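Listing 4. Sequential folding, example run.
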Amino acid sequence: MIHILLMIIKVIGVILLVILGLILAAVLLILFVPVRYRADVSIEGKPDGEAAVSWLLHLVRIRVSYHEHADVSGRVLWFKLFNVRLWPPEDGEAEGLDFEPESAKTEATAQKPVLTETVNQEDVPEPVVVAKPEPERIAEANVPTVRTDSKDDEELTVHATELSSKFDEPQKNETEDFSSDENTDKIRFSVKIKEKLSGIIKKLCTFFDKLRGLPGKFQKLVDGISKKKISLEKTWDSISMFWHDEQNQKAFRLVWKRTKKLVRYILPRKLWGRIHFGFDDPYDTGQVLAAVSPFYGMYARTLTLEPDFTGTALDGELHFKGRIALWCPLWTAARLFISKDFRRLLKFFRKRERNTKNI
């Protein structure tokens, strides 16, 4: 019985050891097997290039290529994961661009039935004829009848006197209205003058008030400048103390050293090619050469620069390869966090950020 239990425990232990070994192997592969990258770019009238990222002897591979169109493809072992065209999109896959041909439109318009309404003559209402009065009757109706009686003459005279009196009254009213209009114009003119004078007086009062307040404002400005000067001096003193602190200096040196090594490790290991370039203005070409000249020692053996001072030009080819392993950035981060000076610097920045958020 004990022998059987020991065999079961042995099998379980072997299985656990195999699982742990597989996990350890996977971790070591992820840490120490680098991700390799390469790129080949050429410009001969039209740009053309290809870039690829691979891991673990090309078992995992992602490729980006541009040959008149940009494609991205991914593969694991012998299985293709994806193959997508980035630009331009394939024919018939453009979204939102459904154009209808003109022939279809014309056929659709031809097939549409034309609606016509037939109107019966019986349904049309007959026009209504309005009898117009004869002109002779209208003239006879408008012409007043003249009477020769004496009583009628007296009535006419009375009517004439009334009309003359009514004709004289509007003239009197017109003279009265004219005089009243003149009075209103005078009143309006006087009111406008008074308003302008009051406005001028108010402006003068505000101007004198501002003149009185100028010394106080000038004093406030001087006080504000002096306070800002004091605050700037304090901040400068704190920055200088922070910069010249020995522990901070050690932390800065460590960060610079580790960052420089990391960048040097990530940069391409191999770089070669040829670049022929030029601008309209020869001065711009010379400026580019002056900007690149400090790095001549880095690319002189592998990269050839051919400036053209006669006109615009851009052609050539460029190839580079490199690798990045995960252990290097992790080791850099571990070396930084092991240092007490760096942790102290990090705490200082976190505390300052919290104070600024609370404010």
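-- end of first protein; second protein begins --
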Amino acid sequence: MEWKIKITEEAQKDFSKIEPGLKKQILAGIIKVSKAPLPSPNGYGKPLGNKHNNNLTGFFKIKYRGIGIRVVYTLVLKDIVMNIVVISERDDNYCYNAAANLYKKYGEDIFTDIFQDFPMKTSKSI
């Protein structure tokens, strides 16, 4: 079952700054993970927990090692929604601090279906 993918305004802005070739890889990874975003044994989700003194319990990551990209997401189980919270070309510390700051901004709403649909294209307009 594929989950509906939503994205925060902040992650959308970061995604728009990434070069088109990398956008295709990122999009392919997000779509793959959206088919099974929960942790193993049956899913791709990698829980974050406590990272760099930030409590990110309930957050998951996708790490693209070859291109240095990290995607942080949350899940809305009852609505089958995957919220993309951070898309970052930077290191883990930056990425997890950005996720923690967005958690502070949105509060528990970060675990609800309040964000815009993720555009499933990789044109320059994204």
